[in-house]
Design a protein that fits this description.
Helix 6 runs parallel beside helix 8 (about 200-215) and helix 11 (about 285-300) packs parallel to helix 12. The chain has a single domain, classed as Alpha-Beta Barrel (TIM Barrel). The strands form two sheets. An eight-stranded parallel β-barrel has the order 1-2-3-6-7-8-9-10, surrounded by four helices. It is an alpha/beta fold. The longest helix has 16 residues, at about 110-125. The two termini are about 15 Å apart. The protein has 14 helices and ten strands. Helix 3 (about 75-85) links the parallel strand 1 and strand 2 (about 90-95).
């Protein structure tokens, strides 16, 4: 990436007119990082894998795990593959406990260094990363004897909102400026918060984190997932009044959506079995995305589908995903396919790579290729993916 491109990746907030207390926040310019929310990329899973504490099934696990053993960050070869397929936007899941092993303590130097390597590699390739705290609104605290952990939910006495704010302030201090910030699409506060004890815990936690980030980073986008697993189909029921205030006016709301009967992404039933249900068909993905897209449009919010994906065992799933992506693109909502990354076993039906091997394209990639993945790019529906897939970025 050239020095000029790096400069254009920095978001600028115009000075508010009149009293700062009364002035409305300005709208950041359409920089590549801002436009990244409208693009279609890939989750590079792996750093979120593996147990983080000893258990009966994993008695020898070292809290909170070891890079390359229990989990792994993506590598440069993977980034090069996705770049060759026109993908410049990635969601990078990681575990809070690994990045900050002690609440309110310093970030772990080794884990931060491993993430820095990915961020640096992305910056060198002109890519953008959404840093995704993949913790479901929870944090596991190591017991005094070091043998077990206890899971706490944001808002518990043991896991106050201030601890969440402290974590994201430290992350923003590290990634909020300098050359690495050029590769940051945004801060993904929390993956799929759910069962948060009450309807206010998650909005309060998110607001505390946003306020803390803005004390050290005035510009980088902040991605706020919805409560109740962030489902696009249930967004209006679970998140109708979600409204996080941001002095930089740079919030993106994140939903997730899968197309099986319970929207879990497990795909336990075949397409043939699912198709027996009334209303199930090629437009199912569109129908499930519509509540979120309508909410974004009516509320004047920006949206992003942080997870979606289909199995490769029936081409009708691919048609459904194609329709879904076309609908999102028409509504200026981007997203990230679940998933790529170095830890998927051979034969996984949804993975874009197996054991980090990316020597051939998976069927899902041929659909994803049709939609914009870099700045700038246009949808080219006239080109058949099977013929155009080898075009270089």
């Amino acid at each position: 990436m050239s020095k000029t491109s790096r400069l254009f990746l920095t978001l600028c907030v115009a000075a508010a007119a009149g009293s700062a207390a009364l002035a409305a926040p300005s709208t950041p310019a359409n920089t590549p990082a801002r436009l990244g929310a409208t693009l279609f990329g890939v989750n590079l899973a792996g750093a979120d894998f593996g147990p983080i504490a000893p258990s009966a099934g994993n008695p020898n696990t070292v809290y909170p795990g070891t890079n390359g053993t229990e989990y792994a960050f993506p590598n440069a070869r993977e980034l090069d593959y996705y770049k060759s397929r026109g993908r410049h936007v990635f969601r990078l899941p990681f575990k809070w406990e690994r990045m900050q092993p002690r609440l309110n303590g310093p970030l772990d130097a080794a884990h931060l260094r491993a993430m820095d390597e990915v961020v640096d590699a992305a910056a060198q390739r002109g890519m953008l990363l959404l840093l995704d705290c993949h913790n479901y609104g929870r944090y596991n605290i190591l017991s005094a004897d070091g043998k077990t952990t206890v899971e706490h939910i944001l808002g518990d006495a043991e896991l106050p909102f201030s601890a969440f704010a402290d974590f994201w302030k430290r992350m923003a201090q590290h990634y909020g400026s300098g050359t690495r910030n050029a590769a940051i699409l945004g801060y993904g506060l929390m993956n799929e918060p759910h069962d948060m004890r009450n309807s206010t815990n998650w909005p309060r936690a998110a607001q505390a984190a946003v306020d803390a980030i803005r004390t050290v980073d005035k510009t980088t986008a902040i991605y706020v997932a919805g409560d109740s697993w962030s489902g696009a189909h249930s967004w209006r029921k679970a998140n109708e009044n979600l409204d996080i205030k941001d002095s930089a006016n740079n919030i993106v709301y994140e939903a997730h959506q899968y197309f099986d009967s319970n929207s879990s992404g497990v795909y336990a039933k075949s397409y043939e079995e699912e198709a027996k249900k009334p209303g199930f068909g090629p437009q199912t993905g569109v129908m499930r995305a519509r509540p979120f897209a309508d909410w974004c449009r009516e509320k004047g919010k920006r949206g992003f589908l942080g997870e979606f994906g289909v199995p490769d065992d029936d081409p009708r799933w691919l048609t459904m995903m194609d329709n879904f992506l076309a609908y999102l693109h028409a509504n200026k909502i981007g997203g990230a396919y679940w998933a790529g990354g170095p830890r998927w076993p051979p034969g996984d039906r949804m993975a874009l790579e197996w054991d980090g091997k990316v020597s051939r394209d998976r069927p899902q990639m041929r659909v994803l290729w049709k939609y914009p993945g870099r700045v700038p790019i246009e949808v080219r529906a006239d080109i058949q993916p099977s013929a155009a897939i080898n075009e270089k970025a």
